[in-house]
TrEMBL record:
Pfam family, one: APH
Domain Aminoglycoside phosphotransferase: 26-249
Record's protein name: Phosphotransferase involved in threonylcarbamoyladenosine t(6)A37 formation in tRNA
KW Nucleotide-binding (keyword) present: yes
Length: 340
């Protein structure tokens, strides 16, 4: 039976006899980069709910359920799970609305308030951190993510097989990045804490933001979610504005005792090096989404991610060999940016 029919049957079991299924409107709400799909159901009394459809042979709902509880206990706004059928891969969730941060931020005047709330929510999640609860963001996982760049961006997207010199450059830079990433203090990491996964909710923190797509959360480097948020693949900010956002987070984090560097220079270096890891990973993922999954919309977001990566690699001598490699690949001149 098609999954849409299975989903409709499941919705019917939840709401009949109160609401006949033919009186319930079921419409696509969103899709993401995985095999999950989301549907918005509108009941005859105009209440709305979200149904997550996660085919169990391809997706596992258990992490979503567990992390939703974990983040709720931390005091942030995540969907409440109203009903679940984990065997079929269906969850019925509260609806956090239709306005993403990405949409709301088209009015740039909203940025200070929205990012202030997002920063406070992130601090709340990080304060709740403890080891042994979420999977470790360890060398193996970080390394597999870095490998997406040569495997999918270089080989599949550019049609380029790295020669020995290029491979040596990648190996040396990847080793330097991993050494930095793995020595950073550890906290809960959402892993995709950005403008498409944050919902703009009326009011301020803790109501705002609504937080989605957290099922891949791990226990890892303290700067990771900050890079997702402030070097977002889908929206760009002037670097002085980015620094302002980041300094405000850093001050709040220090005030509540989170394990960030006491020297902002050291903290910012960790942030940038973590960013390079994420940007290499994202370029690989976007290439994979296009070449393997036929999702071409992500191609338009690659240039911004590459600009972030090139800017960081230009700043640090250990990463400049990658900058020169990117110069060759992209045939672009080096950018001028703040130096640290």
């Amino acid at each position: 039976m098609p999954r849409t029919a299975l989903l409709r049957d499941w919705v019917q079991t939840l709401f009949e006899p109160q609401f006949p299924v033919d009186e319930i409107r079921i419409e696509p709400a969103s899709v993401d980069a995985s095999f999950r799909r989301y549907f918005r159901i509108t009941l005859p009394d105009q209440r709305t709910r979200i149904v997550m459809d996660a085919p169990p042979e391809k997706e596992d709902c258990h992490p979503f359920v567990n992390i939703a509880s974990l983040f709720h206990e931390a005091g942030v706004h995540v969907p409440q799970i109203i009903a679940q059928d984990l065997a079929q891969g269906f969850l019925l969730l509260t609806d956090l609305g239709t306005i993403t941060y990405l949409s709301a931020l088209q009015d740039r005047r909203t940025a200070p308030r929205l990012y202030r709330d997002a920063s406070r929510a992130l601090v709340a999640i990080q304060r709740a951190s403890r080891s042994g609860v979420l999977p470790d963001y360890d060398r193996s996982l970080l390394g597999r993510e870095l490998a997406l760049f040569p495997d999918w961006y270089l080989r599949q997207h550019l049609g380029l097989t790295p020669d020995a010199k290029m491979q040596n450059t990648l190996d040396a830079v990847f080793a330097a990045l991993l050494a930095n990433n793995l020595k950073q203090p550890l906290v809960f990491v959402h892993r995709d804490y950005h403008s498409r996964n944050l919902m703009a909710i009326d009011g301020s923190f803790p109501a705002n933001p609504g937080i989605l797509d957290f099922q891949d959360a791990v226990y890892g480097p303290v700067t990771y979610d900050l890079v997702s948020l402030y070097r977002d693949a889908y929206i760009e900010w002037p670097e002085d504005q980015e620094l302002d956002f980041l300094i405000r987070y850093w001050e709040d984090a220090r005030q509540v005792g989170l394990p960030v560097h006491a020297d902002f220079h050291d903290f910012y270096r960790d942030y940038e090096w973590m960013g390079a890891q994420r940007q290499l990973k994202v370029l690989g993922i976007f290439a994979r989404l296009y070449h393997r999954d036929g999702k071409q919309d992500y191609l338009k977001d690659m240039p911004l991610v590459m600009r972030y990566l090139r800017r960081t690699c230009e700043r640090y001598k250990e990463l400049r060999p990658l900058a020169r490699l990117l110069d060759t690949l992209e045939q672009q001149p080096a950018e001028v940016a703040y130096t640290f």
